[in-house]
């Protein structure tokens, strides 16, 4: 049994992962900005943790005690053409999706280094390796997260700490059902980007991602990157095969 801390456990992937790991017998510390949103989760601890607030992170880590595995899941999304993306909203995404993830990892690393064991499981995205029109800000935060995680994997190798990036494709967790979107005023020249939503048939469930994350928490060893779901596997394989000097066009 491992002690596993999950960020962003109030709904979607994070909540499903808490349920899955608890069902497997692990000591689960579920966290969220509003701990009342964690009511009903049958886990060891339900704690307040806002990844954008250092004092909140420090307090939660102190209450959680020894943690073997971090499942870094907290994140937000919006859709917009680059020209229409409010800079304050881009900063908000970086603060939560990228800086927030690193803040929690930094808080846990001293105890993991002292024990010379631990695992950081970052929930990235197929968008951590690819980008599509209207999705630049979110993808950029995940590309940045992947750079931090890859550097961490090298820095922590001698301390017995594993780092892995889970890369799901579209997930029917609610975030993509009606994502926050920004448009230019008047006759938006980029409106066609949003004419079609993401087909439900291409989505996987939060529970499927949770199973993959629980498996990554339990495996004896993990690779740096793990596509989650058939769409992610196909898309990332196409990205790897595409010319690197031109924008990637999904087939």
Give the secondary structure arrangement, pairings included.
Blueprint: E1 3-6, H1 12-23, E2 27-32, E3 45-48, H2 54-64, E4 69-72, E5 78-79, H3 87-115, E6 118-123, H4 136-156, E7 161-168, E8 180-181, H5 206-218, E9 225-228, H6 230-241
Parallel strand pairs: 1-2, 1-4, 2-3, 4-6, 5-8, 6-7, 7-9
Helix pairs in contact: 1-5, 2-3, 3-4
Explain how this protein is built:
With 251 residues, the chain is of the alpha/beta class. The chain has one domain: NAD(P)-binding Rossmann-like Domain (Rossmann fold, 3-Layer(aba) Sandwich), CATH 3.40.50. Helices cover 39% and strands 16% of the residues. The chain contains six helices and nine strands. The protein has a seven-stranded parallel beta sheet, sandwiched between helices. The protein has a two-stranded parallel ribbon with strand order 5-8. Helix 4 (136-156) links the parallel strand 6 (118-123) and strand 7 (161-168). Helix 1 crosses helix 5, helix 2 packs parallel to helix 3 (87-115) and helix 3 packs parallel to helix 4. The termini are far apart.
